[in-house]
Amino acid sequence: MSELQPKPKLKKPRGRARLIDGKCIACGARCQSSCPVNCIEMTDSGEPIVETAKCIGCQKCIKICPAAAMEMFFTAEEQKILDELAAESGGAVEEEPDEEGTALARKLAEYKGVWVFVEQTEGEPAKVSWELLGVGAGLARSLGVELCALVIGENVEHLCREAFAYGAAKAYLLDAPVYTHYRTEAYVEGCCHLIEKYKPEIILMGATGMGRDLAGAIATRVGTGLTADCTGLAVDDKRNLMQTRPAFGGNIMATIMCDKYRPQMSTVRPNVMPMPERKEGAEGTVIRDPFTVTEESVLTKVIEIIRDSHNKGGVDITGAEFIVSGGRGMMSPENFAILQELADELDGVVGASRSAVDAGWMPGDRQVGQTGKTVRPKIYIACGISGAIQHLVGMQDSDMVIAINRDSSAPIFEVATYGIVGDLFQVVPAITAKIRELKKTRA
Ligand SMILES: Cc1cc2nc3c(=O)[nH]c(=O)nc-3n(C[C@H](O)[C@H](O)[C@H](O)COP(=O)(O)OP(=O)(O)OC[C@H]3O[C@@H](n4cnc5c(N)ncnc54)[C@H](O)[C@@H]3O)c2cc1C
Fold first, then answer.
1. Residue with the nearest Cα to atom 2 of ligand 1?
2. 176 Cα to the center of ligand 1, angstroms
3. Domain range holding 71?
4. Which of 264, 297, 330 is where one domain is finished?
5. Whose CA is nearest to atom 31 of ligand 1?
6. Percent of the chain with pLDDT over 90
């Protein structure tokens, strides 16, 4: 009598995706971009054609479709197996784990923690680093992970303590003579070493000259995505970082995600995020890593540091508490003198719209906006500026905005705390005169 052989285990068929006639809304090829095996082509009218032979039944197109226009179908043979499996399990057929999805989830789960790169020059930290610790704290809380600082330089341990005061719980420190001055090669080597060793989930850097250079080089090296100049950061329920930034010339706000690679990297311009509260004496853990690179391996040598704006009498509008900005409504460069007078009374500086800069009325370092500087003063006075979105993204987070424009429908009034509809050549001198009068009576 032959032995009873165990019945071979039936494998659940995965099926293939197909379009349900008449349901596609031509959303913009989301199904095509989600397909991991490129088996979807789009017709001229924006509908998908699935190459069935290539489909692996991953269901990604079905899950992403906003109109539920895709479905799975099974051959008669596959349907028979499904029915048998359902009968064996009393009705319910267990989902086969999606191998690709599980491997990806496992890989992503290895990365934990929110890191903020603490930018410094000759030991002086860039304020944007602390602003990033502020927004990073919220992200770390949402993810249930630690907020960490990444400090690189020579004799910079004091910056770790400063980072604790601004909310970091831990600081990864590379402290060696080769890191004294920022040089891309050395910093990239150092950062990539730490990333490989400690695997952070998110890395934030300032969108400064240094941050932009370093972030791009690191993202390329570790093979992940980078979103530059973010204006908003949050996490979704799958731990993906939702990185919002202006796109298409600032006409739309795009939310970008990097859902298949880690770490998720973003840069944020100075003054975009608010400064967090400083807690003197806050403690944290310093992880001093001995990793270093040899001086010979770094081709760039820093001979001398020449500071530009501060040494040459230039104006840094990003640090000003009061900004009086002029636009095309100023009509000529000479007319900016009335804005300077008002700015002087307020101990502030004069800014400009791009139109005023393009016209040669003001230098480029005064430009506020998407391709200029982001400012967050206590008071921003916009004179003869219409309020194009590209200008607004650079100043709308000011504590108070006062707009002076003779066109009552100018978009600048939508972000203004106080709006004055009138001729700026009358209004601005009148405000200056009033301030002088008030100062005199108080003296
Ligand atoms: C990719 C891209 C990036 C850009 N980046 C920037 C940027 O960084 N910063 C920026 O500013 N722009 C930027 N722009 C340009 C932007 O789109 C606008 O063209 C620009 O901001 C308009 O400048 P403005 O408001 O001075 O001029 P206008 O739009 O011409 O507005 C002039 C205003 O002055 C008012 N006015 C005229 N005379 C008087 C008066 N006597 N009294 C009171 N009001 C008066 C008018 O009513 C009008 O509202 C960018 C554009 C693009 C495409």
1. 249
2. 48
3. 16-96
4. 297
5. 386
6. 73
